[in-house]
C-alpha cells in the first residue's frame, strides 16, 4: 500500500521526536555518569540541624547566641543542695534530668565525630565544638573534687511523674555522686573518655582548655580504675531502670584507656590495654554499641592503632572489628544475628532503635576510613569486604532516617516535608515561655502530653527513637519508645552526616 504525503510527514515527525528523546536520554545518562554520587538528600542541611538540636537540650544559663529561642534558662541552682556548682550540661532526652552516664557518652561521640570528620564540617565545625564544650564545661564541674564524680541531677521517678517545662520544674534536683565508698567505674571511665576525646578536639584551637581536659581525664580514669564497682549497685534506686549499667564496667575501662592512649600517646595506656584487654574485652559477638556497651567501639578505635600506627599487639582488635563488620553485611557471616526491617533499617531493639542505627553507622564509616588509610580490607569467612561496601550500608541507613523508607517520613524533626509532629519531649510539647509566661505546674502539663495536636515548639534536628521492626511509626507522644529523641541518638549521627555532606555535594 502506498503511503500518502501526510504519512511521510508523520513518520518524519515521529523519527525526529524519537531521536530527540534518545539524545536527551543520552545526555541525562552522561550527567549521571559524570556525577555518580548524585543524591536527593541535603546532608549539609541535615548536619546543621543535627547539631542545632543540642541547643534544645541545654540546661543552665543560655548564651546570647542561643538559636533555639523558645528555650530559656533552667536549672540555675543545680548542685546547691550539695554546695557545688552543677549548673549547665544537657538533659538527656524528653525529660528534665541530667544523667551523667549518657551525657558523657554523648560527649565522647560528638568529639569522635569531630576528630574523624571535623575537617569536612566547614561552617558547622564551630557549632559542633560549642555543643561539645557545653558538655565538657559541665563534666569539669562534676569532676572538680578528688575521687568524686557527681553523676546525676534530678530525681527521675519524681520528674517522670510530671510533665512540665525545664524552665518551670519544681521537682527535687537531687544530686547523686560516686566516690571511694560508692564506686562507679563505668561512669568514671566514660567521663574520662569524654574528656580525653574532647582534649583532641580543642588541642589546636584552645590548647589551654585541651590540657585541662586531658589532665582531668587522667585523674578521673585512675579513680575509676582504682575503686572498681558499678554505680548501678550503690545508686540502684535512682539510676535504674533508666541508665543501669547492664554490660558492667569492664567495657568502659577498656574504652577509657583506648581514648587516653589516643589522646596522650602514653605507652602506659597501651600496656594497660595489653595486660587487661582479655579481662575487659567482653564476648566477641557482642555487637551492640551505645551508651551502655562500648566493646565494639573500643575494638574499632584500637584497630586504628594496629592498621595505621602498626601496633602489632593490637591485631586481635582488628580481627574483632572485622567480625563486627561481617555481622552487618548480609550473607557475610554465618553467625550474624543482625536484623533488618522490610524497608532496610538495622533493627536491634524495640526501645529507641535509632540510637543503634546511628552509632552503628558511625562505626561503619569510621572503620571504612581506617581501612582506606591503611590500604586494606575487612575479611569475612574468606570474603573480602571493601570500605565502599561499608559506606554503602551506612548510606542506606542515613537515607532511610532522612526519608527513604516505606512511610516516606524523615525521622529528624524539621528535615524534609514530613517528619514526627508529636515527639515525646516536655519542652517541645508545652507552650514556650514567650507564648505562655505563667507557670505550668506538674500535673497541668499532662493535657498537652495527651493531646493529639502537633508540638508547638519545633525541636529542630531531633531524631526520634524510630520505627518498629515492620517500619511502622504511629507518631504518638505517649509512645516514648519510638517518639522520644535523645542526645546519644544525635551525637554519632553528626559524624556520619558530615561525611556524606562532604562526599555527596548537592547538584
UniProtKB/TrEMBL annotation:
InterPro entries: 6-hairpin_glycosidase_sf, 6hp_glycosidase-like_sf, Glyco_hydro_9, Glyco_hydro_9_Asp/Glu_AS, Glyco_hydro_9_His_AS. It catalyses: Endohydrolysis of (1->4)-beta-D-glucosidic linkages in cellulose, lichenin and cereal beta-D-glucans. The active site is at residues 424, 475, 484. Residues 43-496 form the Glycoside hydrolase family domain. It holds the Pfam family Glyco_hydro_9. Residues 1-27 form the signal peptide. This is Endoglucanase.
Amino acid at each position: 500500500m502506498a503511503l500518502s504525503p501526510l504519512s511521510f510527514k508523520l513518520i518524519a515527525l515521529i523519527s525526529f521526536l524519537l531521536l530527540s528523546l534518545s539524545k536527551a536520554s543520552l545526555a541525562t545518562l552522561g550527567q549521571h555518569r559524570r556525577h555518580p554520587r548524585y543524591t536527593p538528600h541535603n546532608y549539609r542541611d541535615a548536619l546543621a540541624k543535627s547539631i542545632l538540636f543540642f541547643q534544645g537540650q541545654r540546661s543552665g544559663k543560655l548564651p546570647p547566641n542561643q538559636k533555639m529561642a523558645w528555650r530559656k534558662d533552667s536549672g540555675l541552682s543545680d548542685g546547691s543542695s550539695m554546695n557545688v556548682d552543677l549548673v549547665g550540661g544537657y538533659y538527656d532526652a524528653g525529660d528534665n534530668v541530667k544523667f551523667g552516664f549518657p551525657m558523657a557518652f554523648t560527649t565522647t561521640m560528638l568529639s569522635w565525630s569531630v576528630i574523624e570528620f571535623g575537617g569536612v564540617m566547614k561552617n558547622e565545625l564551630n557549632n559542633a565544638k560549642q555543643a561539645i564544650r557545653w558538655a565538657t564545661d559541665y563534666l569539669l564541674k562534676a569532676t572538680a573534687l578528688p575521687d568524686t564524680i557527681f553523676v546525676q541531677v534530678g530525681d527521675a521517678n519524681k520528674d517522670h511523674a510530671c510533665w512540665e517545662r525545664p524552665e518551670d520544674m519544681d521537682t527535687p534536683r537531687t544530686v547523686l555522686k560516686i566516690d571511694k565508698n560508692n564506686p562507679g567505674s563505668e561512669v568514671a571511665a566514660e567521663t574520662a573518655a569524654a574528656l580525653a576525646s574532647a582534649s583532641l578536639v580543642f588541642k589546636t584551637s584552645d590548647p589551654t582548655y585541651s590540657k585541662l581536659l586531658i589532665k582531668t581525664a587522667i585523674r578521673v580514669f585512675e579513680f575509676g580504675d582504682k575503686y572498681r564497682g558499678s554505680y548501678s549497685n550503690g545508686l540502684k534506686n535512682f539510676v535504674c531502670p533508666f541508665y543501669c549499667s547492664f554490660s558492667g564496667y569492664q567495657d568502659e575501662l577498656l574504652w577509657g584507656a583506648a581514648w587516653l592512649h589516643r589522646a596522650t600517646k602514653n605507652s602506659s595506656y597501651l600496656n594497660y590495654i595489653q595486660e587487661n584487654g582479655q579481662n575487659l574485652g567482653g564476648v566477641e559477638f557482642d555487637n551492640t554499641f551505645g551508651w551502655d556497651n562500648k566493646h565494639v567501639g573500643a575494638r574499632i578505635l584500637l584497630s586504628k592503632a594496629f592498621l595505621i600506627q602498626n601496633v602489632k599487639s593490637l591485631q586481635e582488635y582488628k580481627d574483632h572489628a572485622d567480625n563486627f563488620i561481617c555481622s552487618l553485611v548480609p550473607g557475610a557471616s554465618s553467625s550474624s544475628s543482625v536484623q533488618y526491617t522490610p524497608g532496610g533499617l538495622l533493627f536491634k531493639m524495640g526501645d529507641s532503635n535509632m540510637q543503634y542505627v546511628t552509632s552503628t553507622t558511625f562505626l561503619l564509616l569510621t572503620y571504612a576510613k581506617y581501612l582506606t588509610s591503611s590500604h586494606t580490607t575487612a575479611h569475612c569467612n574468606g570474603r573480602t569486604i571493601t570500605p565502599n561496601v561499608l559506606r554503602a550500608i551506612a548510606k542506606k541507613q542515613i537515607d532511610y532516617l532522612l526519608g527513604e523508607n516505606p512511610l516516606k517520613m524523615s525521622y529528624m524533626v524539621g528535615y524534609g516535608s514530613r517528619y514526627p509532629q508529636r515527639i515525646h519531649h516536655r519542652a517541645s510539647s508545652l507552650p514556650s515561655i514567650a507564648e505562655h509566661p505563667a507557670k505550668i505546674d506538674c500535673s497541668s502539663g499532662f493535657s498537652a502530653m495527651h493531646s493529639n495536636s502537633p508540638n508547638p515548639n519545633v525541636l529542630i534536628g531531633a531524631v526520634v527513637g524510630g520505627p518498629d521492626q515492620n517500619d511502622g511509626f504511629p507518631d504518638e507522644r505517649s509512645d516514648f519508645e519510638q517518639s522520644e529523641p535523645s542526645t546519644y541518638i544525635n551525637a554519632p549521627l553528626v559524624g556520619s552526616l558530615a561525611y556524606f555532606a562532604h562526599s555527596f555535594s548537592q547538584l
